[in-house]
Amino acid sequence: MKILVVGSGGREHALAWKLAQSERVQIVYVAPGNGGTARDSRLQNLPITDLNTLAEFVIREHIALTVVGPETPLAGGIVNLFRARGLKVFGPTREAAQLESSKDFAKAFMKRHGIPTAEYETFSDAAQAHAYIDAKGAPIVIKADGLAAGKGVVVAMSLDEAHQAVEHMLSDNRFGDAGARIVIEEFLAGEEASFIVMCDGKNVLPLATSQDHKRLLDNDQGPNTGGMGAYSPAPIVTPAMHARVMREIINPTIAGMAKDGIPFSGFLYAGLMIDAAGNPKTLEFNCRMGDPETQPIMARLKTDLVGVMEHAVNGTLDAVGLEWDRRTAVGVVLAAAGYPEDPVKGNAIDGIPAETPEAVTFHAGTAEVDGHLVTSGGRVLCVVGLGDSVKLAQKQAYETLEKIHFDGMQYRRDIGWRGLKH
Ligand code: ATP
């Protein structure tokens, strides 16, 4: 069977890598893919980004199943388009993807269905937003309504910072349409975790738990990034916490979407904030898997992902149980010099070791130029190590990444630190 994965990041490399392990798979196309998916003989890059052209390719090549990685094609309606042409595709429709593509939609949805989240108000008028901030005080969080590639959120520790964020988004129009409306919400303190499930419209299948590391530098310092590393499982999500998140957040979300007439299928990612008393609240929804959470999660998945995907697109996820590697997986992102503001591209990459049962390297911002691998984006690689504890998994990841070289390579040395603490 042939499969298509849409996207070009580390998340898509990890999904394609896992799908290609199935004995039933002949080839996994990755559109457009990266330097790593180009080099894997079981994968083939497809230089197509236009959704109609992609659908035509899928029909012509008899591709059995499409899995969509990033949010942009989902918000652009790839699932609506593929389904209208009778194609099997795993992901939410454009309407369901609003859980991620509009923060105002997500917040109103949560309020309507009693799903725990920070208190908020939505504004398109700057004067009203400023007045609200003065009334509420700092710290306070300002969010652009639309998709802003992780850059549309300002956690303001002072009133000045909060007012400035409103100016940037509403008055200076920094994020265009995505920032024409803003959500201002209560600051939540606590520890974050990523809670990702698969859904077929009604049945829910939770994946292994994980935690991301958003800040650029060790000890959670420096600017926010797309994510500098992740590990799985996340010990803060105990079995009791897992049951509670399913009961209070995930199940009401899936039931609420169905009730509102926009059933959700695809990966649903709830970004959680768990406070000191152990109460979880929803920071955000993503309608896709996390990057880099996917890399350690896929490294631990033992079940054939193709079979799972078939159940997912046929509405029979209730028949699936997932088997996980009992080890911890720690994924460390190697980023280019200048990331996140202005990553340097075109530097040669050397020394990526072959995959072993203890370590695998997934590509993101890499490209093959004249047979050589070079950096082509901010987050370049994600090295995943597996071990019987967080410490041993870290050791595998860090020993592996020491063999890799490109000019200006930067990475955090503490991925998984919260796991050591628990
Ligand atoms: P992503 O790249 O994860 O899609 P995003 O732009 O959708 O990011 P959010 O996940 O909503 O933004 O917020 C980004 C980060 O800001 C969160 O991971 C969290 O650290 C912080 N944050 C968001 N909302 C709050 C809040 N209410 N209180 C405290 N911190 C918050």
Automatic annotation (TrEMBL):
Keywords: ATP-binding, Ligase, Magnesium, Manganese, Metal-binding, Nucleotide-binding, Purine biosynthesis. It comes from the Bacteria. SUPFAM superfamilies: Glutathione synthetase ATP-binding domain-like, PreATP-grasp domain, Rudiment single hybrid motif. It is an enzyme of class 6 (ligase). One of its GO terms (molecular function) is phosphoribosylamine-glycine ligase activity. The keyword 4Fe-4S does not apply. GO terms for biological process: 'de novo' IMP biosynthetic process; purine nucleobase biosynthetic process. It holds the Pfam family GARS_A. Transmembrane segments: none annotated. Its cofactor is Mn(2+); Mg(2+). Residues 107-314 form the ATP-grasp domain. Its EC number is 6.3.4.13. Pathway: Purine metabolism; IMP biosynthesis via de novo pathway; N(1)-(5-phospho-D-ribosyl)glycinamide from 5-phospho-alpha-D-ribose 1-diphosphate: step 2/2. The keyword Plastid does not apply. InterPro entries: ATP-grasp, ATP_grasp_subdomain_1, PreATP-grasp_dom_sf, PRibGlycinamid_synth_ATP-grasp, PRibGlycinamide_synth, PRibGlycinamide_synth_C-dom, PRibGlycinamide_synth_C_sf, PRibGlycinamide_synth_N. It catalyses: 5-phospho-beta-D-ribosylamine + glycine + ATP = N(1)-(5-phospho-beta-D-ribosyl)glycinamide + ADP + phosphate + H(+). Belongs to the GARS family. PANTHER family: PHOSPHORIBOSYLAMINE--GLYCINE LIGASE, PHOSPHORIBOSYLAMINE--GLYCINE LIGASE, CHLOROPLASTIC. NCBIfam families: purD. This is Phosphoribosylamine--glycine ligase. It comes from Pseudoduganella dura. The gene is purD.
